[in-house]
Automatic annotation (TrEMBL):
It comes from Roseinatronobacter alkalisoli. Keywords: Bacterial flagellum biogenesis, Cell projection, Cilium, Flagellum. Belongs to the FlgD family. Residues 7-19 have a biased composition (Low complexity). InterPro entries: FlgD. It holds the Pfam family FlgD. Required for flagellar hook formation. May act as a scaffolding protein. This is Basal-body rod modification protein FlgD. The keyword Endoplasmic reticulum does not apply. Residues 1-24 are annotated as: Disordered. The keyword Hydrolase does not apply.
Length: 217
């Protein structure tokens, strides 16, 4: 039996012409008309002393039909996957997300949260730059979980607008009980799909991954 690829390059002995070469397999643009043209070329160029069986043509037709259906199914699944991704991205927009990553100070008071620690008698909110350099400390009550800060008014040296990291250090007397990152809410202004990873853009252009989110409201 001549395959479709073989017969596409076989010279027609009776006419002295040759069929144009075809690509191997079927592309996304394949259709039934293309298959019929290839099948006609195969029949014209078959060996008359050893013709192709009708059952072989039926097998080729079934194979083509299966491949074409699989291509259409893959295209449909791809479109559905794209729609689901964009739907997931849209769900994040304009939500307030809680994170312990650095957030942007725009001049308005902001609230950070750090649950009280047992046996703590006092605590400091430590304000650091994004690269971890400590910039200021604000003493607060050991029993305060939600802490409102005004970085432009409450500090001896007010901080300019920018992104800052907030941690809380607890003390018992003069001894440190350790530090923990403070959580704060920030609005989502943009959502991006970065190679399958959802990236949230917060105020001031601060970017965090969805894995850094602890709550949404």
């Amino acid at each position: 039996m001549f395959s479709m690829i073989d017969t596409a390059t076989t010279t027609n002995a009776a006419s002295g012409s040759s069929a144009p070469p075809t690509k191997s397999g079927f592309s996304d643009g394949s259709d039934f008309a293309m298959f019929l043209r290839m099948l006609t070329t195969q029949m014209q160029n078959q060996n008359p002393l050893n013709p192709v069986e009708a059952s072989d043509f039926a097998v080729q037709l079934a194979t083509f039909s299966g491949v074409e259906q699989q291509i259409q199914t893959n295209q449909l699944l791809g479109r559905l996957a794209d729609q689901m991704i964009f739907s997931d991205l849209a769900n994040w927009l304009h939500k307030d997300v809680a994170t312990d990553a650095p957030i942007y100070f725009s001049g308005a008071p902001l609230t950070v949260n750090a649950p009280p620690v047992a046996h703590s008698t006092s605590r400091d909110v430590v304000i650091s730059s994004v690269d971890g350099r400590e910039l200021a400390r604000v003493p607060v009550s050991a029993q305060r979980g939600d802490i409102t800060l005004d970085l432009g008014q409450d500090l001896p040296d007010p901080l300019p607008h920018g992104a800052y990291q907030f941690t809380v250090e607890d003390f018992q007397g003069s001894g440190s009980l350790g530090t923990s990152k403070a959580v704060q809410y920030a609005p989502v202004q943009e959502v991006r799909n970065n190679n399958g990873q959802i990236v949230l853009v917060l105020e001031g252009g601060v970017q965090i991954s969805s894995a850094q989110i602890t709550a949404v409201r």
